[in-house]
Structure formats: structure tokens, C-alpha cells
Amino acid sequence: MDTKYCAVDGWVDAIPAPGPRGTATFDLIVRPADADTVAQDAPDTVVSCTSGDPRITLELLNGIQPGDLLRVTGTLVQPQSPGGSARLTVDALEVLDTGLVPVLRDMVLERYGDYVVIFDADHDEVPVFAASGQWVGRADNPDAIATLIDIHERVNGGDA
């Protein structure tokens, strides 16, 4: 197994995810340093990253968004097979630039006590979740939200 300690600059592909035993994982999209000289259709490199450092994990799970440009430093393990992704264990993280924050135009999240509902301008139905993330159901319209919550609380003994 070929390993190397290095720093890599790249863009976060998706929201970092919690991993096992207090870790966080994410994919970094890396463009070649000589991007102007390679073919336009040359693929980007995907580096699968993970960190167990509590400070880095906290930042990844709470502050990093898709499109953020990061410099990560750590131990890089080359893929075992051609076409596989390299793996980087992150020891240091620096945010070089932040991605654009998506603007929700036609959708609004609203909290009703221990419940969260999603209003979408394109639909009459309203998805309802408990604040813990548990699916409650779909109200036929905004006026039916209270009824759906009442039914959920009766069935679950008042637990949201």
C-alpha cells in the first residue's frame, strides 16, 4: 500500500456525513494543477476523505457545505485498483473559499413545537416530521397539519 503525507486542495462534493466512532467523511473533487493544459473532458480526481479529529469532525459536520474549497492535509493512500478513489485521512483542514449558499425560493421549513413542516409553493400537500427527524406523514393541505400532529401524538403517546 502506497501512502504519502500531503496537502490537497479541492471542492467538497456533498455535505460531509458522520462516520463510525466519531468520524466524518466527505469526497473532495480535485482538478489537476495544470488544468489549462489537459483535455477539457479529462476527469477530475475524487479523493475520499475521513477524519477522526474531534475539532475537524465538528467543523465538517456543522460548517462545511458543498462547493466549499478546502485545503486538507493528511495521509493519502493510493487506490488499490486503477480507477478507484484515493483515501485521505485528514489531520488539518483549512477553508480557502466558501461555495454559494443555495437560496430556497419556493420552499420554506417551519417549526410547529416539536414538529417541522415543509411548505412548497408547487404542492398543496405538506410533509410533516418530528423535530427528531422521524417521518410523521403528509397533510393534504396546510389546514390539515394540526389534525395530522394530533393523530401522531395520540398514536405515539404524546412523543414527537
Question: If you had to describe this structure to a student in words, what would you say it looks like?
Answer:
- This protein is mainly beta and 160 residues long.
- The chain is 13% helix and 43% strand.
- The chain has two helices and ten strands, in the order E-E-E-E-H-E-E-E-E-E-E-H.
- The chain has helices spanning 54-63, 145-155, and strands spanning 3-12, 17-18, 24-30, 45-51, 69-77, 86-97, 107-112, 115-120, 126-130, 135-139.
- The strands form two sheets. The protein has a five-stranded mixed beta barrel with strand order 1-3-4-6-5.
How would you sum up this structure in a few lines?
Helix content is about 15%, strand content about 45%. The chain has helices spanning about 55-65, 145-155; strands spanning about 5-10, 15-20, 25-30, 45-50, 70-75, 85-95, 105-110, 115-120, 125-130, 135-140.
Provide key terms for this protein.
160 residues, mainly beta, five-stranded mixed beta barrel, four-stranded antiparallel beta sheet, 2 helices, 13% helix, 43% strand, elongated
* Total count of helical runs of at least 4 residues: 2
What does the average pLDDT come to?
85
Radius of gyration, whole Å: 21 Å
**Overall geometry:** elongated
Strand order of the largest sheet: 1-3-4-6-5
Structural class: mainly beta
Percent of residues in β-strands: 35-45%
End-to-end CA span: 49 Å
H-E string? EEEEHEEEEEEH
Number of strands: 10
How does the major sheet shape up?
Answer: 5 strands, mixed, barrel
Task: Give the fraction of residues assigned to helices.
Answer: 10-25%
Uncertain parts: none
